[in-house]
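Section 3.1: Structural characterization of target chains.
Under the original work plan, the team committed to producing a structural model for every single-chain target entering the pipeline before any wet-lab resources were allocated. The record below documents one such target. The sequence was received from the expression subgroup and is listed exactly as submitted; it comprises 182 residues.
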Amino acid sequence: MGVGTLTFYSPEYDSYAALGHGISDEDSKELIEVGEGEIYDAKVIAVTKGRNDYPGELKGFLNETLQYGDIDVNSKNGIYGSYSGDFNFSTREKIEVASKNEVQLGKAQILCTIDESQEVKAYDIDIVKTSTSYFSATQGMIIKVRDEELIQKTGGIIQGMSGSPIIQNGKLVGAVTHVIVC
């Protein structure tokens, strides 16, 4: 088990998407077939900052008494399922999902929780490359973190931030999926 991020919740369908990539077997790297699975509340308890030879990670505490939903699908684009938790999403702003051709190079933000405050904050990034190929279902963009607070605390994108929504011009344009270690 690991910590990941809920990308979006659809109140219309009581469904969610998370991670932005599938859950794979550690050894074979093949997607794990989901027979059953659940998502739970998790709290960030520590951050291991990324560096040139290590991707860093969010360390979390999984609260198995607060089940928020079931995992119905594990695909290369993330996990999807039905939401049954009691989190009050009405306090969150609803946003539209952008079409692929609306994604532009330039300024954007990621939303994530990176410390014990459990606060979801927006951090500035740049979208530096996009792929408009409809054959490329994953890794459709490359982003660069430019937010000094996020760089100071994490070194950039770290493990556990997978699924963090990418927002541009007030619309959801994607999700963080992978860490590139330079």
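The first helix runs from residue 148 to 154.
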